Fold these 4 entries.
Entry 1:
Amino acid sequence: MGSIFEKLWRLGPAAFVFKAIIAAIAADGLLLAFIFIRRTYRKRFFARRDKRVFELRQQWDALISGRMSYDRWRKKAFDRRIVEAMALDAFEAAGPAESARLLKFMRVSGLIEKRIFEAQHLRGWRRMRALVALGRTRAPEGVPALAEALRDRHLEIRLAALRGLGRTACPQAAEEILAWVGESGLTVPALPLQSALIQCCAERPQLLLPFVKQAEGPLREIMGRVLGEVATPALGLELLQFVGDEHEELRAAAARAMSHTNTGMAFDALSELAEDRTWFVRLRAIIGIGSLADPRAIPTLLKGLTDSNRLVRLRAAEALVQFRAVMVPVFQQVIQLADRYGLHAYLTAIENAGLREKLELQLQNSNMGEDELRRLQAVLHIGSLPPEEPERAEAAASPSESPL
């Protein structure tokens, strides 16, 4: 009489199948046991955390103001993580006064210094977590540690540092990002870099100018997009050099910056950009010309009504409506364009501005002949060109543009 294992061994291949089934059942049992234990642990952990969050929330004002001793929670890693998470979440919806209060609390309690130390000395996901938390504080003293992480060999770390610098939204962070890009080139995806620079350069867009001039290729294109978003009227004359640039983003930036620079040079530049081959450059130029409210711009705006892009037509119409003293002559010229899309855009702008009655009154008080008056009133009433007017052929959108 042998043992059961000897009997199984004599069974040959059938024994291996049997043993495989037994092993699979045992493995499934272990996996189910692990899942059950893990769920039980997580349930207890979250219940404990929820209870502690509620307790700390009841004492939040005392905790933030320092009336509660920091030793009561700082020496316990569980409590410290909860307090830091609550403070960082509060930053997201806090106004200037509350943000200053929270930042002072995190400085005095040493939470910021702790995150700076971790960002400089930890590795892997722990460093990434520290960088993200440091960026959420928006603390200027965290900028050097974030800038140091930009030079890490791992892309995930560089992206975490870049997003952290972007959240600080301060010129010092912009200088660090631009210096790093100047050294290393484009080593991260374009969109995170563009977003971070837009946030950090909004206060001092002039920081971008030297780098835009020196950058080449895709990096110059990114810099142009950023400059187009943050350009201000103070940069108007400095951006004249980009009116004829090969990159449309830089031409759009020049148009945006000159929109409030009421000089003859700015008007001439905007008039030139209003005929640009790229639709969003024309759009920026039309918006800029409209903001100048210069009667010399009427011919350019009338031409904008025949543009192939819908947004350009609407903006041109909105700008024309501003010239309320000459609404009747402008209306006549709009009809003479014989462009039904342009006419619809102008009439829509008139309705949106609540000026329909004013235009009707000016038509009645004008000195034009009765036939012309009836013709204009009919166009205003039916909202379309009169039958005798030859309509212009519909402008076909070029392959590089969206007809919108």
Entry 2:
Amino acid sequence: MLASMNIAFLGLGRMGFLMARNLLRAGFSLSVFNRNRDKAEPLAREGARIASSPAEACRDADVAATMLSDDDATEQIVLGADGLADALPRGAIHMAHSTISTALARRLAAEHQRRGQGYLSVPVFGRPEAAEAKRLIVVPAGPPALIDRCRPLFDAIGRATFVAGPEAWQANAVKVCGNFMIASVLESFAEAYAVLRKAGVEPHLFLDIMNSLFGSPVYANYGAMAAEGRFEPAGFALTLGLKDIRLALDTAREVAAPWPMADVIHARMVQGVAQGQGEMDWCSIAKVAARNAGL
């Protein structure tokens, strides 16, 4: 019975496509929308219905999920002409997986409440390979009753669910703080590898030591990519990483919390984008550190 829920999924980028496919394979009835219709065709061959607009995708939905690149794209799809919010039935839920600002999350919650709809922020942690394997970490926040209704969807895309709090924007705060932590690992590797290469030490040896010390897939995966200079194709582009660090700094300003390390990472990412690395993986900030060290 749970799998008979009607789900609309809007935004079929690298992550969204894989998440939508896992919902479809879990047995949910799925309607999909993407600006580039071609990206939706493989899902149609597996039984999804392709909608011509966000409104069409959502008219009969119990839950509408969005996985979009940023605040502007989310606002346009949800609140723009022929958008999600005006078409979603009363009592249905909008579940936003996108990494968006806490300010936009509060606005979306208010807009949906005004229309008699539910809203949850449900960001996820994990790269595309984790999304494909249903190994994402899912972080919902919002009214507990809505979270309970959506748990079968969380289980279909992820390996663990952690509820961030009763206010939807709290999940967005967790997401940007988590991405800051990952970015801090990238910056640490970038600086350490630059020093080690100048000292004549093999970065992979250092990575083996760090993997033994920390035992973290974040260290193992990103450390290897940075050591090998494997920055393309991007699993998560540097431009998106820069956007997320800006969101993190905005959140810190909202709560009046100094964040000096985030300022350092922001500057490093700006430098990388300015030097033409915007579409490379965000761990390509290692190239910036190497250049600054004269390598």
Entry 3:
Amino acid sequence: MISVAPRLARIDVHPIKSLDAVSVAASRIGPSGGLEHDRAWALYSADGRWMNGKRTAAIHLIRASYAPDMSCVTLSAPAGRRAISSAAAPGAAMPAATFPFPHGHESAAAWFSEYFEQPIAVRYSPSGYPDDPEANGPTIVSTASLEAVCDWFPEIALAEARRRFRTSLELDGVPAFWEDQLFGAEKEIVVRFRIGEVDFEGSNPCKRCPVPPRDSRTGEDLIGFQQRFMAQRHAQLPAWSSAARFDHYYRFTTNTRVALTEAGKTLRVGDPLSFE
């Protein structure tokens, strides 16, 4: 039997949906179960759809950097391939601009509109805009799992794997894909666990999208990524992983639910994970 001591090794908050993360030592649970400030801004085009990485690779060229207290964000984008996802001319670099965060979303809309060359609305929600509205909590992965993916794809370093999969919580002290134990063998089976002072319910293995095959800085696709990933995920599925929860093998990391009663509690790097 493999000895494990699961521990929270990393917390990544993504304040603007689809843009750069901020690694923090501690984070409170927000009003709807996600991390405070995680996905607090979301970009929308005029048709009311998200303008995100699933829709356009051009978003990968935007850099977002934050003040240490996260009170403001500076946005910038390089010259060259601004229109990466279209046949338009490359365009000049976008000048860097700084906006208050999180309440400067309306003023930031003009910057994003110029970048995408179409009207963009930036909306702010204290509850965030989770990718999976039925699993409102942070996504979880282990460092060993990310390292295993890097073994499958030697051209991807660990830091780049983190940027591509955009997971909120990272565990160490466990083997690769240990986080598959955090969801049940059937959808109706609930796995309850605690990290530090916060109670969680594991939901499902996360269905991946078109973002992980792309370079997080350039948007360039790694040809054959999805097929190679699925083949390796299937071949290396651990005995503790329930194959019944994998309608396909392009699933990685664990989605969670967090009750509203947990709002305001704090997760800290170093917190242990324990089961009820």
Entry 4:
Amino acid sequence: MHRPRRGRRGDLRDVQAEPRTYARDALEKRTVEVQTGARVRSVSPTCVTLASGEVIPAHTLVWGAGLQGSSLVQSLGIELERGNRIGVGPELELPGYPGVYAVGDIAAITDPKTQHVLPQLGSVALQSGEHAGDTIARRVSGKPAKPFTYHDKGTMAAIGRHAAVVQMLGGRTMTGHKAQFAWRTVHLALLPTNEDRAKAIVDWAGSELTHQRVGRIVVEEGE
């Protein structure tokens, strides 16, 4: 068995390991108990009940089981797919509604290469939105529309302090400090304004120095 070796600062590094293995090791190193393959029967403010009958008590419960399309789509009177998502055709049009497009989290877009529905990621939303805009422009100018093609640029995940994983095209994997630096670089590039980038850099610098995270809460007082 190949065991991941520890870096100079204690972070687990193994570029040959699968991302899920690295992520689990990194979480367990931070005293996080990871359970996989367990289905949730019910959730309450103080506990989670699994399908097996096991009850997990909790003081603070955060439920992060994924995204659903906006409840607004339920009022459209059309058949929806899993997660309140609208099934669309190759050009992101609603079947039976020419000129009507669905993009982002509310669209169930099938990847023609894998025949699987694309995940609800920011990159899918950005590319599908750009494609829908291009399609509308092409049809206004009398040009034929093109089918949507998703360009997978890889996957990144930040796990914790000096722990992140990057899965690049071709199956290559980067972990640890280098992966965290790559994640932060891409994150900065995707922020809309220089002010947002400056705030993110200040927050990261403060976290490195104090080992604490800073959260900004904006409270507006009523008249």
